[in-house]
């Protein structure tokens, strides 16, 4: 089994920064990719950033250049540093741990990020 636990988030003014963290516990050896997704009210869930076991990263177009995903392998933790935040970054941010096997991925409960204008 794999457990995914997010922390961070909160309320920040536009232009500010926040840092999200995602810790994975359990059978972490099965995880090949960690990713952050977000969902705003009335919108579809979208990929924010992802990092593979090999260290390859991928970013959504709307956050590239402002957000940075990184990992602390020793702590099985992934961080999302969010800079130059905009009101449109508001949403619930979910961490996903993916084994790359069909249907075998795990989600955290989500953490709210609110950016005020």
Topology:
Layout: E1 2-7, E2 10-13, E3 18-26, E4 33-39, E5 46-52, E6 57-59, E7 67-72, E8 77-82, E9 91-98, E10 105-107, E11 111-116
Parallel strand pairs: 2-11
Antiparallel strand pairs: 1-3, 3-8, 4-5, 4-9, 5-6, 7-8, 9-10, 9-11
What does this 3D model show about the protein?
- It is built from no helices and 11 strands.
- The chain has strands spanning 2-7, 10-13, 18-26, 33-39, 46-52, 57-59, 67-72, 77-82, 91-98, 105-107, 111-116.
- Strands 2, 4, 5, 6, 9, 10 and 11 form a 7-stranded mixed sheet that branches. A 4-stranded antiparallel sheet has the order 1-3-8-7, with no helix packed on it.
- Strand 9 (91-98) and strand 10 (105-107) form a beta hairpin.
- It is globular and about 40 Å long.
